Amino acid sequence: MSEVIVKGLIKYFKGKRVLDEVSIKFPKGSLTVILGPPGSGKTTLLRIIAGVERPDAGEVYIDGSNVTEVPPSKRDVSMVFQTLAVYPSMTVYDNIASPLRLRGCREEEIDKRVREVAKLLHISHLLNREPINLSGGEIQRVAIARAIIRKPKVYLFDEPFVNLDAKIRSELRDELRELKEKLRQTIIFATPDPLEALSLGDYLVVINKGRIVQEGTPQQIYYRPFNTFVAEYVGNPSMNLLKGEIREEGGKLAFIGEGIKILMPNSLPKAVRDRSVIMGIRPEDLTLFPPKSALEGVVKLYGKVYTIEVLGADTILHVKMGNLLIRALLPYMYRPKISSEVNLYVHSSKIYFFDAKTLKFIEG
Amino acid sequence: MHLRELIRVIRYAMIIITLIIYLFPIYWIFVTAFKRRIDIFALPPRWIFTPTLDNLYEVINSGMIYSILNSAIITGISVIISIILSTLAAYGFSRYDFKGKDLWLFYIISTRMMPPIVVVIPIYIMFSILHLKGTYIGLITMYTVMNIAFGTWIMKGFVDEVPKDIDEAAEIDGYPKWKFLLKVLLPIIRPGLTATIILMIIFVWNEFLFALLLSSTNTRPASVALASIRGERGFNWGRVAMLETIYILPVIILVFLVQKHLLRAMTFGTVRE
To answer: Which residue among B43, B68, B146, B237 is the one 20 to 30 A from B209 at the CA level?
Structure first.
C-alpha cells in the first residue's frame, strides 16, 4: 500500500492557471475520487501524478520520496485513460502483456499473469482479438487489465467510463468496486459524475477551477457540503437553492424570497436567523405528504406544477413557487395536471443553509 | 422510362465517355509499344496487328532502359530518406509545443508554394558550385527536400489522429521513445504512411524540370530520357511507347494496390472512407 501526497501543485496552460496550489494527501490503500466538472483540472492533476505532465510548481511524493522529476515509467504507477487508449496494432493478449514484457518478465510468468487478470475482468475469451473488433466497454476492460497486471504502487483512472453507455458504465463500476476490495491498493479515480463518485469513493476530493473546494468521506461531502457549489454539484437532480431572508414576521419565523414566503419552525438554529441566506433543499427530501412521524419541524412549500419528468420508477416534479422553480424527486410514478396546485413538505433538519454572500455552509 | 432511370443512364454514359477520354491515350501508348513501325504509321489505324517485342529489345540494347534504373535509384533513396525524416518531423510537430511552431509549419509548406521554375536558376548555380550537378546525390537531395515539406504535412495529419493518450499510456507502461514509435505508433499510422510513400514515389518518378536540369547522361532518369529519344529518321514512336509503358507501369500498379488510402493522404488525412 502506497501513500501519494501532492503539495502546492500549480500548472498553467496557455497562461491560464488550471491547477492552483493543490495539496492533497491521498489515503493509503483506498479509493479516492477526484470529482469536478469538465475543465476543473482533474485530468491535469492525474497526469502530473502519473508523470506525463510536469507541474510549474509543487511536488509529488509517492511513499515519502519526491518523484516530481522522475519519469513515468520509473514511478510505478499505472493509468487508465478516458479515450480508449489501448494499442490498436496489438492483440488483446499483447496489450495486456506489454507492461510486463517491457520489464523483462519471463514468458511463462507473463502468460500466467495475463490469463489471471483476463479472468478477473471477464475478457479471457477476447485474448486473441484485435482491439478494433471490441466494444468500448471491452476495450476499457483491456485497459484496466493492462493497468493492474504489473501490480503498481498507485492506480490512476482518468474518467474511464464517461465514453461508455449507461448500462456498461454501471456494470464496470460494480466490477471496479469488487476489484478495489481485491487489490487493496491506492487508487485515484477522476470523474465528473457525482453519483459515480459517491458510489465508488472511500474518500472524495471536490475540485473546481483548479482549486480544491472540499475533501472528505462521501457522507461528509453529501451531508455537509462546504458551499453551494458542492451542494448543487453533488446530487442528481441537483439541490434546489432559494435565495432569501429568514426573519420574524407577525410573530412567526419565515423565509422570504422573491415572491414567496415559507413559514419556518421555531426550532430553527439561531445561526441562520435574521440574515440573508441561500436555502438548499435536496429534491429527494421533498415529499407530497407531511411525514407522519414528526409533524414538529415540518416545512410546507406550495406552488403550481410546471412540468413533469417521468423517469420510470421516479418522477421529477418541477414546481413554480413565486418566481422560482424547484424540483422534487418522488420515488414513484406520478402525473398531476400541469398548473395544478401542489404542496411539498420537507423536514427542517434536512434543509441546508448557506451564507448569501460567501455561499458557505452555515453550521447550525 | 422513369426519370430516375434516365438520369442513371445519362450518368453512366458520361462516366464511360470520361473514362474513354482518359484511358484511350494510355491504351494507345500500350499497343504502340508492341507494334512494328509499319503498323504504327498505318492509316487508317490498325486495331488488329501482330504484336512484336522488337521495341523492347531496342530499348534494352540502346541502353535506354538504364534511365528506368536511374529513376528507380533516385526515387528509392530519396523517398526512404524523406519518409523517415518527415514522419519524425510530423511526430514532433504533432506532439510537442515549441516556440514558433505554426510559423515553422508554414515555412515548411511555403517552400512548395512557388512554381519550381522560379528557383531553377539559383538552384542550378548552387548545385554547380557544390559539384552536385549531374550526380545521383544532387537529384536525391533535391527531391528529398521537396518531399519532406509535403510529407511532414500529410504525416502530421495522420499522427494528429492518434490520441495522445496512447503516447502517454505507452510512456507509463515503460516504452522507450524509439520502441514506442516503431512498435506502437508506426503500425497505427501505416495506411497513411503507405499512401504518403506512394505519393512521394509518384512525385519523384514524374518530376521533369529538375531532372532535366540537374542530371547528366549517366544519371538521367526516365522522365528526361523519354523526352530526348530521337531516332535517325524522326521520332521512333515504337521505342518511346515501349519506354513509356515500362515507365508508367510501376506507378499504375502501386496506385491500384493502395488506392483506398490515397484519398485520405491527398486530403491531409481529413477525409475518412
So the answer is: B237
Contacts of A87 in chain B (CB under 8 A): 166, 169-170, 184, 188
pTM: 0.78
ipTM of the complex: 0.76
Q: Which residues in chain A have Cβ-Cβ distances shorter than 8 Å to B171?
A: 51-52, 71-73
Domain count, chain A: 2
Chain A CB within 8 Å of residue B101 CB: no
pLDDT for A89-137, tens place per residue? 899 999 999 999 988 889 999 999 999 899 888 899 999 998 888 888 8
Please report, for the domain that includes residue A345, its CATH number: 2.40.50.140
For residue A364, being part of any structural domain is answered with: no
Q: Are residues A211 and A88 in the same domain?
A: yes
Is the peptide bond between A160 and the residue preceding it cis, with omega within 30 degrees of 0? no
The reply to whether B184 touches chain A by the CB within 8 Å rule is yes
Task: Detail the DSSP E strand segments found in chain A.
Answer: 4-13, 16-26, 31-35, 57-62, 65-66, 77-80, 154-158, 186-191, 203-208, 211-216, 240-249, 252-257, 260-263, 275-281, 298-311, 314-321, 324-330, 341-347, 352-355
Could you tell me the residue range of the domain that residue A180 belongs to?
A: 4-233
Residues of chain B with pLDDT under 70: 1, 230-233, 264-273
CA distance A97 to chain B (A): 10
Domain boundary residue, one of A233, A248, A268:
A233
- In this complex, is the C-beta atom of A180 within 8 Å of any C-beta atom belonging to chain B? no
Which member of A78, A86, A103 has the closest CB to residue B172?
A78
